[in-house]
Amino acid sequence: MIVVYGIKEKLNPIKEKLSDVIHGCMQSVLGMPEDKRAHRFLPLEREDFYYPGGRSDAYTVIEINMMAGRNSETQKALIKALFQELESQLSLAPIDVEITIKEQAPYQWGFRGITGDEANDLKYKVNV
User: Fold this and answer.
1) pLDDT at residue 125, rounded to an integer
2) What are the structural domains of the chain?
3) Is the CA virtual torsion 84, 87, 90, 95 positive or negative?
4) H or E segment and range at residue 19
5) Nearest to residue 117, comparing CAs of 106, 104, 103?
6) Which long-range contacts (CB under 8 A, 24 or more apart) does 106-109 make?
7) Of 67, 54, 59, 39, the residue nearest 124 (C-alpha)
8) 3-class SS of residue 34
9) C-alpha torsion sign, points 103, 106, 107, 111
10) Which mean pLDDT values do the consecutive 10-residue runs of the chain (128 residues) have?
């Protein structure tokens, strides 16, 4: 699951395209299938979103939650692909984007009535 935060006046107009860019990177780097898009957008009021100095109002935070298993080079490739594609397709400067990957053990995920370590029918690889 991916959660995206930003100031609502900047985030709302680009949500659809931003979702497309994020999912495209997830597909190309991680091999995620087309139907595995789980994005949550949290547009915030300006007074509810504090961010570091040197950033513009376009500052966007992307939290990627995934089952543990992807190696560090794969995760770094995903982050770099996101920076590149967000800048080229949405003109979001890398200084205005923060990306974090949060990993949880498969047994800590629950979906379709089972835990992630019980799922044997995933259409994508976790260990890449």
Assistant:
1) 74
2) 2-118 (3.30.429.10)
3) positive
4) helix 15-30
5) 106
6) 106/67, 106/68, 106/69, 109/67
7) 67
8) coil
9) positive
10) 98 98 97 94 97 96 95 97 98 98 89 83 74
